[in-house]
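input
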Amino acid sequence: MTELEWIILVGIGATLTMDAWSLLLRTLFGTASLDYAWVGRWIGHLAQGRVAHLHIAASSPVAGERLLGWTAHYAIGIAFAGLLWLLGGDEWARQPTPWLAIATGVGSIVAPFFIMQPAFGLGIAAARTPNPTFARFRSLLTHLAFGLGLYGSASLVAAMASPQF
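output
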């Protein structure tokens, strides 16, 4: 298995874990999660030179925005798995430990707090939402789930594939 294959598998696995967590919250508590069509809409508008929106939901739709958004969601998960690879290296990938993966997952919250949410018109760290504290806490738990997914996926890949980097 190559480093790239490891990064892709771990990134997909961690993102699936994050999505499973969001599905669980929606099923048990009716908690809405991010509509990834918004991510696709934002990317579509980026291509036209528009970075920030008053509110992304009110911006004009972009053809294929849902698929674009979900694709970007998984690509971002893979990118963070690549960061984990850079931080941990070959040895960590062969014998993963939880703390580096969890720190990477929780640290990934920087992206939505300081890039996505402000660009979507929600303010830094969801400051312009009806309940910023709840939104921040939910984001923190979701990124914690992503970190646990990084660790679980890395452990599964190491156990099943015996990486030979």
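quick obs: The chain has a mean pLDDT of 95.
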